[in-house]
Amino acid sequence: NKEPSEGSGPSMTLRVMSYNVGAFNKYKEQLGHYSYPEVAQILKDFNVGVVGMNETDKGWDRTSKHYQAQELAKELGEGWTYYFASAANNMYGNSIVASPDHKVVKEWNKVTIPKGDGSEIRSMGAVEYEDFVFCVTHLDHKSENAQITGVNLITDWAEKNFGSGKTTKPVILLGDMNCEPKDKAIVKFKEKWTLVSSTELTFPCKPNQSPTKCIDFIFVYNNGVKYEVGESHAVTPARHSNVTLASDHLPMYADITFKKQK
């Protein structure tokens, strides 16, 4: 076995978040607007450096021709970057939004996850930043086989591009996996990835009702890069009053410490 590798710069702690934002419109009727301000406030209040989002649309917001991720980046402030990876119908998919602290090196092409016996085509999107690689996916909600196919395709991509000896950057993957911690897809992920998030409950998030299961997860790829895991929690209504109207999922965050590249 090779010795674990790491960057040569100073240590940094990155707070990442997984958030199924429900097209920012799950509670639009109650709010009277898309939930960009609510989601942005959660990210700001929890000092999130980069967020991977599920159920984001490309121009589906009737008030705008912009990507929903672009709208959120604009809400967060100058210099925030956005990325979109389409899934089923090229108008819907996964997004990444990152703070100006993190310089984009490369926007990777999406990994397409075929429908198989699942509900629809899914995808994984990835952005490589100066000091880390960040991936977001949304696995099928009906088919265990389709979920496992997704796990295998994502893991193969990670191995091919960022396997042992190929990088000194940690590779982070998160998203709504549509299954629970003991289910086969999560067990399969854990063969090659380390679960770094808590298993606090994240879904469904409804006003005056507690969630019943954890289906949103954060992983780091086992490629020999050194890192340490810190705090991880779901953002409950007790932690932030906006969450029950921002989406029907609670966001999940984790702190990951590693060495910068230079």
Helix content: 10-25%
Mean pLDDT: 95
SS summary, helix count: 6
Give the strand line-up of the largest sheet: 3-4-2-1-12-11
**Major β-sheet profile:** 6 strands, mixed
Query: Separation of termini?
Result: 25 Å
Structural class given helices, strands, pairing?
A: alpha+beta
Radius of gyration based on Cα positions:
17 Å
- Report the β-strand fraction as a percent range: 25-35%
Number of strands: 12
Describe, in plain words, how this protein is organized in 3D.
The protein has helices spanning 28-31, 36-45, 68-76, 144-162, 184-189, 243-246, and strands at 11-20, 50-57, 81-86, 92-98, 104-113, 122-129, 133-138, 171-176, 193-195, 216-221, 228-234, 252-259. With 262 residues, the chain is an alpha+beta fold. The chain has a six-stranded mixed β-sheet with strand order 3-4-2-1-12-11, with helices on one face. A six-stranded mixed β-sheet has the order 5-6-7-8-10-9, with helices on one face. Helix 2 (36-45) crosses helix 3.
Give a brief outline of the structure.
The chain is of the alpha+beta class.
Keywords for this entry:
single chain; 262 residues; 6-stranded mixed β-sheet
Write the layout of secondary structure elements.
Layout: E1 11-20, H1 28-31, H2 36-45, E2 50-57, H3 68-76, E3 81-86, E4 92-98, E5 104-113, E6 122-129, E7 133-138, H4 144-162, E8 171-176, H5 184-189, E9 193-195, E10 216-221, E11 228-234, H6 243-246, E12 252-259
Parallel strand pairs: 1-2, 7-8
Antiparallel strand pairs: 1-12, 2-4, 3-4, 5-6, 6-7, 8-10, 9-10, 11-12
Helix pairs in contact: 2-3
